[in-house]
Amino acid sequence: MSGYKHAAEMLARRQKADGARGWRERLRTLFLIDEQSPELVMSQYVALTQQIPTLYLVLGINVVMLSLTHISSTPWWLTSALPAPLLGVGVARCYRWMRWRGVAVELDVAAARLKSVVVLVGVLGAGFTVWALALLPYGDAYAQCHVEFFMAVTVVTTCFSLMQLRAAALLLVVIMFVPFGVVFLTSPHPAMVAIAINMLLVACSMVLALLRFYGDFAALILSEHELIVRQQETQRLSDENFRLANIDVLTSLPNRRRFFTELEATLDRAARGERCFAVALIDLDRFKTVNDMHGHAAGDRLLTQVGLRLKRLSGPELFVARLGGDEFGVILTDCHSPEPLKAFSTKVTQALSGPCVVGDRLASISCSIGVAVFPQAGATSEELFERADYALYHGKQAHKGELVVFSDEHEVRIRRAAQIEQAIRTADFETEMWVAFQPIVDVRHSHVLAFEALARWDSRELGPVGPDVFVPLAERTRMIGQLTEVLLAKALTAARGWPAGVSLCFNLSAQNLGSAETMDAVHRLVRQSGLAASRIEFEVTETALLEEFEVATRAIDDLRALGVRVALDDFGTGFSSLGYVHRLKLDKIKIDKSFVTDVERSAQAGAIIKTIVALCRNLSLDCVVEGVETQMQMQIIAGLGCHHMQGYFVSKPVTGDVVTRLIERINANADAVREGAAQ
Question: Is the pLDDT score of 395 beyond 50?
Answer without folding.
Answer: yes
